[in-house]
Design a protein that fits this description.
487 residues; alpha/beta; Alkaline Phosphatase, subunit A; Arylsulfatase, C-terminal domain; 14 helices; 18 strands
């Protein structure tokens, strides 16, 4: 860490920092509305898992308390229905396909954030802001050049792959291995987040807390599971709610630490999820549960797979209340930078935009937004969608799929626990072509649950959005192939 990174800046001092740092990633710093940002990301937590949206879930008392004095973006959507692409878009402000992160498979490098991409942490670190990542990375599990410490974070405590066991976990602290010690993983990550805040209380910081919960494997302390057992719930659902309650308690302790350090009014607190919930399984292993009446779930670009609440909290700065602005995952990075008074150097064009005006109750106009997930054989159902205002077109199949072989499944588990054993990824998956299916058009104002295909009544809207989706896909694919992002 440079001396500039080590120095302590007061709140007013941060606002006066001039753009006198050299380097390609240096942005201009102007007057800011906050000194610090804490970005909390749950994993596979659905809309219906938040108590303010579904009180019957009963597992988020801390988040419900935060929500009561927060701006709640009810129309916020993740940038992807699966985790790695969603995280890439969140960190860069760019569609994940542009960055090379098209899926989640570490062994094939489809989770790798291209080395030329600039993260929000890159920009802030060069402004003297302490940057920390606690929890899940999953935007480049294999290869030292894709490590979080090479992507803008001063500190990293967590895991590089897509998931970890909650009891027999295997973490790392700034490159050094940390073995399980009997504590529950969510408690460990929460304690690390609190420690980061306390150590950096006297300097500006950006802390990204990426919890594993409630992602597979479904594990929680027995007492918490017992609390959520009911005759009308499966054991799996009770476990999921217990996992969320443990995370909620950790978030509550983190908020208390911010308050105890006297940082509440200077800290923008953001909470959301990477995508919608996993609702699969049969019998007592079924995770099916209420999801706010939304169609689909994780892996689907229907609203249930991408629409997750976003909470923004900062006393005296962020106006509490419901906000129905259409917000996409690519908007978070530029909004964070704007709130801190930092201009993005933009070596590559951003897809996201600064939505800071909405934090004080202002409005922004809707613009078209896109989603696409490239899936693998034999799952011939790749998802893509475009939304423009009230209209959303969902296309279950686009240009290509990527085929896997049995070896991918055999090494997947080992990579999750021991990414350090691997130095490079396998060849990119083989391209295959899916069976095309008819796009569906939904009017989200009249049909937020996406139950009625209105293509026949609106052929011109359908054709316009289908062309827009095809043009967008061609554009981002050209950029992805140009950077050779799969390697």
């Amino acid at each position: 860490m440079t001396e500039f990174h080590k120095q302590t800046l007061s709140n007013d001092g941060l606002r006066r920092v001039a753009a006198d740092i050299t380097g390609d990633l240096t942005g201009k710093m102007t007057r800011s509305a906050a000194r610090n940002v804490i970005l909390i990301l749950a994993d596979d937590m659905g809309y219906g898992d938040f108590g303010f949206a579904n009180p019957d879930a009963g597992c988020t008392p801390s988040l419900d308390e935060i929500a009561a004095t927060s701006r709640i973006y009810s129309q916020h959507t993740s940038a992807s229905p699966v985790c790695a692409p969603a995280r890439a878009a969140l960190l860069t402000g760019r569609y994940a396909q542009r960055t090379g992160v098209i899926d989640t498979l570490e062994a094939r490098g489809t989770d790798r954030l291209a080395r030329g991409e600039v993260t929000v942490a890159d920009v802030l670190r060069r402004q003297g802001v302490a940057t920390g990542l606690v929890g899940k990375w999953h935007t480049g599990a294999i290869g030292a050049e894709y490590h979080p410490l090479r992507r803008g974070f001063d500190e990293f405590v967590g895991f590089r792959g897509g998931w970890q066991d909650y009891w027999d976990w295997n973490l790392e602290r700034n490159g050094a291995r940390v073995a399980a010690d009997g504590r529950y993983l969510t408690d460990v990550l929460g304690a690390e987040a609190v420690d980061f805040v306390r150590r950096h209380r006297d300097q500006p910081f950006f802390l990204h807390v990426a919890f594993n919960a409630p992602h597979f494997p479904y594990q929680a302390p027995g007492a918490l599971i017992a609390r959520h057992r009911r005759p009308d719930r499966t054991e799996r659902v009770a476990t999921v709610y217990a996992m969320i309650e443990a995370m909620d308690a950790a978030i509550g302790r983190l908020r208390e630490a911010v308050d105890d350090c006297g940082l509440a009014e200077d800290t923008l607190f953001l909470v959301t999820s990477d995508n919608g919930p996993e609702l699969g399984g049969v019998g007592d292993e079924s995770a099916a549960r209420p999801n706010h009446g939304l169609a689909g779930a994780k892996q689907h670009v229907l609203e249930g797979g991408i629409r997750v609440p976003l909470l923004a909290h900062q006393p005296g700065v962020v106006r509490a209340g419901d906000d129905h602005s259409f917000v996409h995952g690519v908007d978070l990075a530029p909004t964070i930078l704007g709130h801190l008074g930092v201009d993005h150097p933009a070596p590559k064009p951003l897809d996201g935009r600064d939505l800071g005006a909405t934090l004080d109750g202002g409005e922004v106009s809707d613009i078209p937004r896109f989603w696409q997930w490239t899936r693998y054989a034999p799952q011939l159902g790749t998802n893509a969608a475009v939304r423009d205002g009230r209209w959303k077109l969902v296309r279950p199949a686009v240009e290509e799929l990527l085929g896997l072989d049995q070896r991918d499944e055999l090494i997947d588990h080992d990579i999750k626990r021991h990414p350090e054993r691997y130095r490079d990824v396998d060849d990119p998956p083989v391209l295959i072509h899916p069976v095309d299916t008819e796009p569906m058009l939904f009017d989200l104002e009249q049909d937020p649950g996406e139950q009625i295909d209105v293509s026949a009544e609106n052929p011109f809207v359908r054709a316009r959005l289908l062309d827009a989706l095809a043009d967008w896909y061609d554009e981002v694919e050209r950029e992805r192939r140009l950077i050779g992002a799969l390697r």
